[in-house]
Specification:
Structural class: mainly beta
Shape: globular
Oligomer: single chain
Helix content: under 10%
Strand content: over 45%
Radius of gyration: 19 Å
Length: 290
């Protein structure tokens, strides 16, 4: 049964996160969190040229609790370091999946090599909620190299799909998540059409990273626009008008109360106050100066 197209949300103005990431938020937990549960936030840093610099550009140490962050590098390099001991550099095609869980302090910067040479940076960051039973899970870090992510040639020369999480056409992605999630990155050739089979009852959406998509042969979505589908149904057919790149996400909803405050997402305001106190007292760990 096809999924019903629920809404096409327009592209939003871009803003700086720190001084290294110029992003456009497709949605945040303040607007579409209930509709798109378990997903909380989706930022796309469209391709942007950075000049060589000796100064570190990015976001300094900051805390998180109660959810996971997924960072996908398309161009350039991003360096991560956190208080659980996780860290590393991700480049084109790589993904880092960080579980904040009970609490973590981390930083994200352009890599030293990218800063020295300069170049084009493009990335996506997705926040994924944790169910109540897992919000106090130990923090962890998954580094997913590009070569570990299955690449599937789409029928009819339509393009290619990478399976970061979940499965597509029998191929499973390497990411481990607390809630069932499909996360796919698609590159479509001009006129390329594909049927995406999502799980019945899951929240499903497409973010157009580049180009234009035709949906159900009637409506279209352009770069920066977010396509949201009904939870009912399982199939969605899209066609590229010109070359296009798309991020597809679908996940099992978490039907629990949600309270977000800055870098913390919990179930109650009391838990938010506890998170703030734990961070301020150092119970989420610290990062040694570089």
């Amino acid at each position: 049964m096809p999924k019903t197209l629920h809404a096409i949300h327009p592209a939003r103005p871009a803003h700086w996160v720190g001084d290294g990431f110029f992003v456009r938020s497709a949605f945040t937990y303040d607007d579409l969190a209930a509709e798109l549960s378990p997903f909380l936030l989706l930022d796309h840093g469209a391709p942007r040229e950075f000049a060589p610099t000796e100064r570190r550009l990015g976001v300094g140490p900051h805390p998180h609790r109660g959810f996971e962050t997924v960072t996908i590098a398309f161009q350039g390099e991003i360096e991560h370091r956190d208080s659980s001991g996780g860290g590393g550099v991700i480049g084109p095609g790589d993904v880092q999946w960080m579980t904040a869980g009970n609490g973590i302090v981390h930083e994200e910067f352009h890599s030293e090599r990218f800063a020295r040479t300069g170049g084009t940076l493009e990335m996506v960051q997705l926040w994924v909620n944790l169910p109540r039973r897992s919000k106090r899970a130990p923090a962890r870090y998954q580094a997913l190299a590009a070569q570990a992510i299955p690449r599937i040639a789409l029928p009819g020369g339509a393009g290619e799909l990478r399976v970061i999480s979940g499965s597509f056409d029998g191929q499973r992605g390497p990411a481990e998540s607390f809630t069932p999630i499909d996360l796919w990155s698609l590159t479509l050739n001009d006129g390329g059409a594909v049927s995406l089979a999502f799980t019945e009852g899951h929240s499903s959406a497409l973010l157009v990273l580049e180009g234009t998509l035709e949906l159900d042969g009637e409506r279209s979505a352009r770069e920066g626009e977010l396509v949201v589908f009904s939870r009912a149904g399982s199939e969605c057919r899209v066609r590229a008008r010109g070359a296009a790149r798309v991020l597809a996400l679908s996940g099992e909803p978490i039907d629990e109360p949600l309270v977000g405050y800055g870098p913390f997402v919990m179930n109650t305001m009391a838990e938010i106050r506890e998170a703030i106190a734990d961070f301020q007292s150092g119970r989420m760990g610290t990062l040694a100066p570089r």
